[in-house]
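Form 7-S
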Amino acid sequence: PRGQKLEESKVRLNDYGAFDIKFKLPDNVNLGDGSIYFNLPDLATNTTHYFKVQEFRKPEYEVSSMHRPTTPHYCHSTTDEYVIVTCEGKLFAGGYLNDANVQWTVEPETTQFRPPERSDYTFGRAEQFFWRYRYNNSSQTQNKISYPAKTFQGKTNNKGLHEIKINYHGIEQEPRTTVVRALAAITDLNYQTQETQTEFIIHPCTYYVGFKLISNYGKKDKSVQTKVIVTDIDGNLIDNVLIECKVIGNGNEKKEDENGLIVFEQVKDDQTLTIVSSNKDPVSIDFTPKLGKIFVL
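Output:
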């Protein structure tokens, strides 16, 4: 910090070209930005690593956050709903942290939800089988929707509390489970800042439909078996719910035109299947692909 050289030494690389160093900063070191300069003279190359030196200040208060109601939250096409989010500051010496600045950041984004005890079924969007193993979790990131963050400001009251009301309404064109994270940064009169976060889930419906393929691969003109269930958010099977399954396949078919030349013509294999759910066992939806391509259910 402030251009002061604290220490200088040499280190020998191991057989893998790596090294490990440790150093201790003086007790009276200046606060601010610091850096470590690494240099390899034989290779005429160098790099710099940066760090910060800050004074530790023992916190004078603790923070927490919560939301209400704690019952499950559901979207509704016409009715507005809301959640009250609260943060609280308490002094370690006793009493409440009143008149402290509060900066709220509320960030909603879509998420994956799977009812309890139903880990063998897929709910919501699923990544393709080969894509999952080839690209790890990149497809989940691509499917995720992050909505714009909203910020709010205020001050804690004489009980160390501050609240905001988060309203939500309507249903997306493609209903998705949404997680809402509310982060509160509370700053006291000594400019100490501490953060606390609470989150809640908004379900797009009271029921979830899950499916699983008996096999991840099928063959053209051979029946593909699928198990389907409808559950509530606790994983309980729901009876007598109409399930519509759309199977969409796209591919190219080799044909011969009027001149005798080989051409490839785009073809589709779209199927719509319906069945009623059961509260006893999964129901079966079987379809026969007419193309040797990737299908979407």
